[in-house]
Amino acid sequence: MPVTYCDEAYNEVMTWTEKTKIAYAPNRKSGKSFHRYGKYMKAKTVGEALTLGSYPLDLLFDYEKRLLKATGGPKRKQPPDTSAEAMSKEERKKLCRTDIVLASMYAKWQMWKHTFKALDEHGMTREQLKQMNKDQDPEGGKDSIVVAIGRREAQQKAKEILAAAGSRKITDYDVLECLRLWGFKENTNRGNVMPEGAKFVHSDTVGLIKMSTCERTLLTVGTKRYPEFTQLITRWLRERLPSELKQEFAYTSININKNYAGKLHRDGNNVGPSFIKAFGDFTNGELNYWPSDSGKGELESLKDKDKVKLNIRDNLMLFDGNRGHFVDPFKGERYSLVFFSIRTWNKAPKAEADAARKCGIPVPTAKSMAYAQSLLGPSGKSGYQVWPSPQQGSKGQKKSTACDETPRRGTKRTASPSLTPSPPSAKQKKTATSEKVAVLEETPKKINVASDFPGTALLHCTEKGSKSEYIQKRCAALEGKTVQDAVNKFQYSNAQGTKQSYTLSDLRYDVAAGRITVATGNSKAKGKAKGKTGRGR
């Protein structure tokens, strides 16, 4: 953990420049510090102190201990931003040593303040983070504080969803809520998919991986540490596999991507057959795929006329990852899941494969792998398959209480293997919203907390808390609001501070958890689910 000093020391020292005038108190130190202090205490400016032997952190220490003070000369608001995004290499070369060291100290201070605040907000101690990072992925390294917090939040959310789901299907919205919370590392190892100019992408893998340095095949630590998160995703696919499949689709790994459009590539460590689906509130972002690609030759030789363009937000697609594919640019929030098998699927140690199965991953056998590979032909329409799977409960969507399995924004969609459903028009969006409001305004005689919420009913926050601070805050903010106002107007900040619209699914979830009660007239729906806890949250 970092060595930190009081904010007062940082707030003062970070305003100094090379020529800021300073004065030192008489030497009260001992040991080696006594002799070093004796040399740099003669300095009249910050630049001279560093030249005479003061360490950068000595500036903070000596100021905090009242051994050092500024007596005049120039000051500034803060040191220069020397990050690659803010300053070129040529500009950094022109900086003096004082600017370089203070800029580095300032950047680290800001990072520590941000991450330690996040720890406090989420009830996580530095010792817990340190303990977690004793176990690390062989190639992924340690989790940062922000990544660890996000993953813990996603794991907790997945636990709650699975506990409340019962026998109902896991919805797209359930998956999306967990993906929004998931802490993504900055992955610099996927150069084959990085858009031009990008230095990293938000791309993680749960399940089995093959180490790039050797032939070892292992289960990622993240999969072991957050098993319910993986179970939620694997259950979502299992419940949506097309009925015409004669047996379960087996795979070893799930690639999780956030907010980047992968450039044209072929997968490098993939047996081939892969299911893919996109989630989120975005426009465009279709998958372009060459079903007749032999996997040989230069990618640039692939011709546009041979590709198909598919909307994987509203369709579940089976394709061969070893054939050329890329994602169109998009606007909005876009996640995608790719279920695939690594090439060393049959070399995983038994203990690792068994641990993967406990997390819901159907690790292939020779028979199931042969079946998966038989699902795709070598070219043309046999080279992929598509099944309509309209997205449910996207960000900001207010779903009808009548059914959870509704297409995006209330628009009925059909799909064929070569056809991309069009986004809803502005008129369709307006009509769909009006229909949803109408549903909310109906006032049933009896409230069923699992499905029916009158639009004029009032919401009340109970004393039952949540481990997630943002959920507690949103419930408190809902006190006294009507159902209609809550699901049509209310927004809250999630664990990452991103604004989200409150939906009927959120309301079902909070009521089922006992954090919110719904009251109309003299009757009150207690914060306890009756039987099954509704369809979605």
Summarize the structure.
The chain is an alpha+beta fold and 537 residues long.
Please report the first level of CATH classification, the CATH class of the largest domain. Answer: Mainly Beta
Can you tell me the CATH topology of the largest domain?
Jelly Rolls
The number of helical elements comes to: 17
CATH architecture level-2 label of the largest domain: Sandwich
User: Poorly predicted ranges (pLDDT <50, ≥5 residues)?
Assistant: 394-451, 522-537
Mean residue pLDDT: 82
Q: Beta-sheet strand percentage?
A: 15-25%
Oligomer: single chain
Structural class: alpha+beta
C-alpha Rg (nearest Å): 28 Å
Instruction: Determine the N-to-C terminus distance.
Output: 39 Å
| Anisotropy-based shape | globular
Number of strand elements:
20
Total of domains? 3
